[in-house]
Design a protein that fits this description.
Blueprint (H helix, E strand, L loop, with lengths): L1 E6 L6 H10 L4 H10 L6 E10 L2 E10 L7 E2 H10 L4 H22 L7 E2 L5 H17 L3 E4 L8 E4 L2 E4 L3 H10 L17 H10 L2 E2 L9 E6 L9 E8 L5 E12 L4 H13 L4 E8 L5 E9 L4 H10 L7 E9 L2 E6 L6 E7 L5 E5 L1 H11 L3 H9 L6 E2 L6
Parallel strand pairs: 1-6, 6-9
Antiparallel strand pairs: 1-11, 2-3, 4-5, 7-8, 10-11, 12-14, 12-15, 13-14, 16-17, 16-19, 17-18
Helix pairs in contact: 1-5, 1-7, 2-5, 3-4, 4-5, 4-6, 4-7, 5-7, 6-7, 10-11
Length: 401
């Protein structure tokens, strides 16, 4: 239901992407928790500050190593570290794919096997924070699509661990070749490196397309600032755009009948037959009927295309001589299934997007009963514990109505 749009007029870099994610509202713990699981807690200092560039506000991010010197990392060693960490699987695969893309590009550029690639800038702590952080933030935001404008090529030269290199640097050009990514060129661009290997690798893996955007509405905006002083604002903008209304109208049919000559067992069996035939909801209410006889009022809510099949059940599997039917409808919010972490492991929940864009989580009641029974805690205590992990929700389904 929502897109994330990456606008990178003056640069595509990992720190700018991560700063924009924070500015869009991603909590710091979403980024810091997987870094701790990789054994990096205490190995870095992450500073995120409100700043301006060319008169425009945004967040600027700085990562500093807490230990010096930093260990040198081969791709094979780094991959083993990621594979053995207790990361959630969707996040682990994204991080591995980003570093694999970087390793493939570096191996091609330097003419060596991928396993022997020695990450220089890429293996430093700041790039690890950028890659893991952006992957974790995008996983948390869970867009239906991530669309990126073609990044700027830049021009001139840049100093690296391999000496002075032309811009775009060889690893950036190789990433673009391997993943068939477009650049935006032109002599009006500032001199220097605008698109970094880390920034381009992140978008090569995470973005669904590099093309002009369709029409969109702006529902959220995060701005990440670069560190270089340019002749224009040096920023990257992350735009959240909802592609659908907050709620959707659905045409439904309501069928109902009142029964005063059926046992409770008969009524329960009829309700179950209606559910199995496709009824969305079936309710049973005690009713006082003619001549003071107690009975039951049954109502079934269903899709219009299922009306004929359920009419047949009412008239063949119950004692009623007729049933009422009328068209009506409902407004529904988008929702999707997923999991929240808990002391008892992943718990099935349902995430709902509210009209203002806020997402709330509802724990499946079967899960509450199961965990309450196994833990000895009340259902309310279990619910509060699970909802405490709502910020780390992991989707297992696409948004639906």
């Amino acid at each position: 239901m929502a897109d994330l749009l990456v606008d990178c007029p003056t640069g595509l870099a990992g720190d700018m992407l991560l700063a924009a994610c924070f500015d869009l509202g991603v909590p710091r713990e979403v980024v810091e928790e997987p870094l701790a699981l990789l054994g990096l807690a205490g190995a870095y200092q992450l500073t995120v500050e409100e700043a301006s560039s060319g008169g425009l506000r945004g967040l600027r991010l700085q990562v500093a190593a807490s230990r010096d010197p930093q260990p040198h990392r081969l791709w094979g060693d780094l991959r083993a570290q990621i594979e053995t960490a207790a990361l959630a699987e969707p996040l682990r695969q994204r991080v591995l794919r980003v570093f694999a893309a970087l390793a493939a590009a570096e191996a091609r550029v330097h003419g060596m096997p991928e396993e022997a690639v020695h990450f220089h800038e890429v293996g430093a702590i700041d790039s690890l924070v950028d890659v893991v952080g952006v992957c974790a933030a995008i996983t948390h935001l869970a867009p239906d699509r991530l669309l990126c404008q073609p990044p700027p090529a830049g021009r001139g030269t840049v100093s690296t661990a391999h000496g002075v290199l032309p811009v775009p640097v060889p690893a950036v050009l190789e990433l673009a070749r391997q993943h068939r990514l477009p650049f935006r060129g032109g002599e009006d661009q500032p001199e220097g490196e605008l698109t970094t290997p880390t920034g381009l690798a992140l978008m090569a893996v995470l973005a669904d397309s590099f093309a002009p955007w369709p029409s969109f509405a702006v529902d959220g905006l995060g701005v990440g600032l670069g560190h270089r002083q340019l002749d224009r604002p040096n920023l990257l903008r992350l735009i959240r755009s909802d592609r659908a209304a907050a709620a959707q109208w659905q045409e439904l049919v309501l069928q109902e009948a009142w029964l005063d000559d059926a046992s409770p067992e008969d009524v329960a069996a009829l309700a179950e037959s209606l559910r199995q035939a496709g009824a969305l909801e079936v309710t049973t209410t005690p009713a006082l009927m003619q001549k003071g006889r107690p009975g039951f009022a049954l109502a079934a809510l269903l899709w219009p295309q299922d009306a004929e099949a359920l009419r047949r059940i009412w008239l063949t599997r119950s004692s009623t001589l007729g049933m009422r039917e009328r068209r009506q409808g409902r407004w529904v919010l988008p929702r999707r299934g997923g999991h929240c972490p808990s002391p008892w492991g992943p718990v099935r929940v349902k995430q709902v997007r509210r009209p203002g864009g806020e997402c709330t989580v509802k724990v499946e009641h079967d899960e509450l009963q199961r965990l309450s029974k196994s833990s000895g805690q009340s259902i309310d205590q279990v619910r509060l514990t699970v909802l405490a992990g709502a910020a780390r929700f992991e989707a297992t389904e696409a948004w639906r109505w």
